[in-house]
Write a structure and sequence with these properties.
mainly alpha
């Protein structure tokens, strides 16, 4: 039974998938930190001061926190770009495409 289970893990690449999930989660934390702690304060500081907030995610209009959507969009865009660049560099392909 144990041998069969280990064969299952190897055949379907479960270990590699688990490692990818852990590394992906940490990479997401890193990119989010870069966005929240470096880019947002540097790039959006003048606009945030004009709006009297210290974090873009606190921007709101009558209780609608549109700043959270903007912040999440910026996070997503940067994470997607980092994954794209990683795929191009690691896979060394001219065009990154689904196989």
């Amino acid at each position: 039974m144990v041998k069969e289970f280990l064969g299952f893990l190897k055949q379907y690449g479960i270990i590699g998938l688990a490692i990818a999930v852990v590394i992906g989660g940490k990479a997401n934390e890193l990119v989010s930190s870069v966005v929240n702690d470096l880019l947002m304060p540097l790039v959006f500081q003048p606009a945030l001061k004009a709006a009297n907030v210290d974090d873009i995610r606190r921007l709101s209009y009558h209780g609608v926190f549109y700043g959270k959507v903007i912040g999440s969009f910026i996070d997503f865009t940067i994470v997607a770009f980092v994954v794209f660049m990683f795929a191009k560099l690691v896979l060394k392909e001219e065009n990154v495409s689904k196989k």
